[in-house]
Amino acid sequence: MKICIKAPAKINLVLDVLHKRPDGYHEVEMIMTTVDLADRLELSNIKGNKIILESSSGFVPDDSRNLAYQAALLIKERYGIEKGVHIKIDKHIPVAAGLAGGSSDAAAALKGLNQLWNLGLSHDKLAQLGSEIGSDVSFCVYGGTALATGRGEVIKRIDSPPPCWVILAKPSIGVSTADVYRKLNLDKVEHPNVNNMIKALKDKDYQGICREMGNVLEGVTLSMHPEVNRIKEKMHSLGADGVLMSGSGPTVFGLTVHESRMQRIYNGLRGFCDQVYAVRLIGERTLE
Ligand SMILES: C[C@](O)(CO)[C@H](O)COP(=O)(O)OP(=O)(O)OC[C@H]1O[C@@H](n2ccc(N)nc2=O)[C@H](O)[C@@H]1O
Ligand SMILES: Nc1ncnc2c1ncn2[C@@H]1O[C@H](COP(=O)(O)OP(=O)(O)OP(=O)(O)O)[C@@H](O)[C@H]1O
């Protein structure tokens, strides 16, 4: 038996940090939504009690450092499963980009193995397991649009944005999330208003959504990598309505509802920036 499952990327419409916690993590308030750029995972049973992982990208590890591998190991250990699995990852989401590629692969592996091994685990249980792997994994189990609090693992579903285009632009630099959080100085940030964004989403107020977007990690990454700011300026000048860095970066996303403007922004950024994608915002939950 073979299970095929999609692992979509996310963007952060809002990322606020409230304070640093005694456990070293930061208390956050984030609004995340899924976009139509996805890795694809194929999971199949194999002989022997082992996990074999293969990826189409040379940039991701194919051993226990891979978050999808960690997901399989966690399920096997927690539920005493003595079976083997082959995990094939067809990578499309850029790596170390702020788009939760690894987290989404881990969430897809949890969901896929739940099916492959008939475990009957609920999405809430899978999200709880996911939080042991990384802060973004719980959100990726549900997808859709959500408010994430705690260290990112407490998920509440909220209204999805109206349909629009998302242009993603990633410069050829990698950013360490831990490094960005470490360098964040909370005395110097302007906090986005999460409640205003929730209201704008509820009202399907596209202009309001663009206006309320904000990410307190942006200033940290911008100060280390000025090219991220140049991409932001370029996106603005090409006519994107809302422009923001996703997660800890370095990917910048821009929103537009017009296909012709999407084409202009996409074409204007290619050649200027290493990796550029124009995709639809999914927003709605598509639980498998
Ligand atoms: C930047 C975001 O991607 C936004 O969605 C997330 O906040 C980070 O999610 P993630 O990559 O799944 O993060 P994790 O793998 O759990 O943590 C990586 C490192 O980031 C820092 N970290 C992460 C989440 C958080 N709420 N506070 C933190 O300080 C910690 O140093 C941690 O060791
Ligand atoms: N399945 C995977 N796909 C991509 N990277 C992975 C995977 N498993 C482990 N990694 C490692 O995780 C690191 C971060 O990659 P990832 O693409 O998940 O970053 P990200 O998009 O910034 O994540 P987030 O937005 O959750 O912080 C990479 O350096 C990579 O070596």
Automatic annotation (TrEMBL):
What EC class is this? transferase
Pathway field of the UniProt record reads: Isoprenoid biosynthesis; isopentenyl diphosphate biosynthesis via DXP pathway; isopentenyl diphosphate from 1-deoxy-D-xylulose 5-phosphate: step 3/6
Q: Which Gene3D superfamilies match?
A: 3.30.230.10, GHMP kinase, C-terminal domain
Q: Which GO terms describe its biological process?
A: isopentenyl diphosphate biosynthetic process, methylerythritol 4-phosphate pathway; terpenoid biosynthetic process
Q: Which positions in this protein are listed as binding ATP?
A: 94-104
Q: Hey, which family's this protein in?
A: Belongs to the GHMP kinase family. IspE subfamily.
Q: Show the HAMAP family listed in the entry.
A: IspE (MF_00061)
Describe its function: Catalyzes the phosphorylation of the position 2 hydroxy group of 4-diphosphocytidyl-2C-methyl-D-erythritol.
What is the designated name of this protein?
4-diphosphocytidyl-2-C-methyl-D-erythritol kinase
Q: Which organism is it from?
A: Exobacillus caeni
Traced from the root, the source organism's taxonomic lineage reads: Bacteria, Bacillati, Bacillota, Bacilli, Bacillales
Gene that encodes the chain = ispE
